[in-house]
Amino acid sequence: MEKISVIVPCYNEQDALPLFYEEMEKVRKNDFEDIQFEYIFVNDGSKDETLQEMKALREKDDKVRYISFSKNFGKEAAMFAGLEAATGDYVTLMDADLQDPPSLLKQMYDCIKNEGYDCVATRRVTRKGEPPIRSFFARLFYKIINKMSDVEMVDGARDYRLMTKQMVDAIISVKEYNRYSKGIFSFVGFNTKWLEYENIERVAGETKWSFWKLFKYAIEGITAFSTTPLIISSVIGLIFCFVAFILILVIIIKTLVYGDPTSGWPSMVCIMFFVSGIQLFSLGIIGQYLSKTYLEVKNRPIYIIKETEKDQK
Ligand code: UDP
Ligand code: MG
Question: Regarding the domain with residue range 3-210+301-311, which homologous superfamily does it belong to in the CATH classification?
């Protein structure tokens, strides 16, 4: 019998988790009669009763497994832990807030089964219900990253997808510490089909993404999958050297020909500010990559488990 593993990263999802479980069970009973299921709930250091909810679900259903982290490691780490723990022939990643409709799962499964895909991924075609400013920056981010990176990132792509075990193994083999899954999914390749759906709002709880967190995530995506910013800063540096060289020539010649009282002080200060600004900007870019390399070299674990369902009895 075939088995599907459902991986759900959860951070403060005490209200959404039971709703998710119910909804998913409905879909399982209707659409997947002769397929075995396994739920892997990953508690990413929640501060509310999420872990208790997981334990309660485990008590009444032993399809439920859970992994509880020692602190909040982020959704990326939670997804990775779930992928490593999954034992199914097919694995799906879903949010706990039902923004990833379980009802799509049957269609996704059929695409893999009948059309020979390795993976079926989803993307939102609308961003309805999201603050307009957030949508604007999200769109801008995808434009920039797709220009800069060889790895294609799809605008509106969700982490919600169904994959074969083979693809999951490939993803697990990418052991980098700075994880940006949307890039990793695309990096490992395989045949991916995209399904589209309208944005759905959260059933309960609140989004975990502040604007600042999203901004950092965007920088993560860019630095993890592109070295173009390094080239940009070198090119800007070169252009400035060239301009400065010309200016020096102009000044020398001008002084020799006309003599020069101490004029030009304000413009000098402006230039100094501008150039040092560019320098700091470039240093910042280099610093970004250096810090990533630093964290990568340290080889820290991506997550630390405090307990799982195996500790319960
Ligand atoms: N999540 C997590 N760790 C975090 C932040 C979020 O495991 O540090 C989980 C969260 O519980 C949810 C999923 O990631 O299941 C998506 O989070 P959210 O709904 O807040 O993001 P959005 O849908 O607004 O992009
Ligand atoms: Mg959500």
Answer: Spore Coat Polysaccharide Biosynthesis Protein SpsA; Chain A (3.90.550.10)
- Using CA atoms, how far apart are residues 66 and 60, in angstroms rounded to an integer? 13
C-alpha distances (whole Å) from 262 to each of 246, 255, 265, 276, 281 are 20, 11, 7, 23, 31
95-127 CB burial, b ≥16 within 10 A, e <16:
bbbbbbebebbeebbebbeeeebbbbbbebeeb
* Any ligand 1 atom below 6 A from CB of 11: yes
Average pLDDT over residues 43-66: 90
Query: How many Å lie between the centroid of ligand 2 and the Cα of residue 282?
Result: 35
Distance 279 CA to ligand 2 centre (A): 39
pTM for this predicted structure:
0.74
Per cent of the chain over pLDDT 70 is: 96
The predicted-structure confidence for 83-135, as pLDDT tens digits, reads as follows: 999 998 999 999 988 888 888 888 899 889 888 899 999 888 777 767 788 78
- How do beta strands 192-197 and 157-164 pair? unpaired
Q: Which residue of 10, 11, 66, 182 sits with most ligand 1 atoms within 8 Å of its CB, as the best mutation to test the pocket?
A: 11
